[in-house]
Amino acid sequence: MAKTLISVVVALILVSSTLGSSDVPFIVAHKKASLTRLKSGAERVSVSIDIYNQGSTTAYDVSLTDDSWSQDVFNVVSGNTSISWERLDAGGLLSHAFELESKVEGMFYGAPAVITFRIPTTAALQEAYSTPILPLDILAVRPPEKKFEWAKRLLAKYGSQISVISIVSVFVYLVASPSKSGAGKGSKKKR
């Protein structure tokens, strides 16, 4: 009975290690969207999708489809909402971007993009989904940006670098400039 139990445990370990290290693509996709207000009264939506293959083999016939943008609300300005590639190598990255324009006010909740791909060992198409985007408040009334708001953002972003550079420049100035007390003593003539 003990031998049977041990052989079953060993068999389970071998099967689980084989399944855990199988050679397949692992697709991770990240979808981002940003809004830009146009002077014409419309809002431009810039969408970018990055597709990563974190698996150990190549994915073939990779196609991206992002049909969550209703044609009643959005017009495609540049690019396409769908695209295909021949392959995505292991550890590789594919990127796609497109721009839309909307003149309709309201909240928009976008769905994840769909990525389909094929692996050599299986005839069926595999499917992966991108991350969803945050809700977009299209043509929302935003308070005007305050004066010097850009300076606050710049200081918050680069404040530590600015302080290090200023400390180093003060140190260099003190080391490189001649001492005024020593210069005064050396230039005095004795009579």
- Largest beta sheet, briefly? 4 strands, antiparallel
- Percent in helix: 25-40%
Q: Report strand %.
A: 25-35%
For the secondary structure, the number of strands is: 10
**What is the gyration radius calculated from CA atoms?**
30 Å
Based on Cα principal axes, name the global outline: flat
Task: Please characterize this protein's 3D structure.
- The strands form 3 sheets. The protein has a 4-stranded antiparallel beta sheet with strand order 1-2-6-4, with no helix packed on it. A 4-stranded antiparallel beta sheet has the order 5-3-8-9, with no helix packed on it. It has a two-stranded antiparallel ribbon with strand order 7-10.
- It is 29% helix and 35% strand.
- By secondary structure, it is an alpha+beta fold.
- It has helices spanning 2-20, 149-176, 180-187, and strands at residues 27-37, 43-53, 59-65, 74-78, 82-88, 93-102, 106-108, 114-118, 126-129, 136-138.
- A hairpin with a 7-residue loop joins strand 8 (114-118) and strand 9 (126-129).
- The termini are far apart.
Keywords for this entry:
191 residues; alpha+beta; 4-stranded antiparallel β-sheet; 10 strands
Brief summary:
With 191 residues, the chain is of the alpha+beta class. It contains three helices and ten strands. The strands form three sheets. Strands 1-2-6-4 form a four-stranded antiparallel beta sheet, with no helix packed on it. A four-stranded antiparallel beta sheet has the order 5-3-8-9, with no helix packed on it. Strands 7-10 form a two-stranded antiparallel sheet.
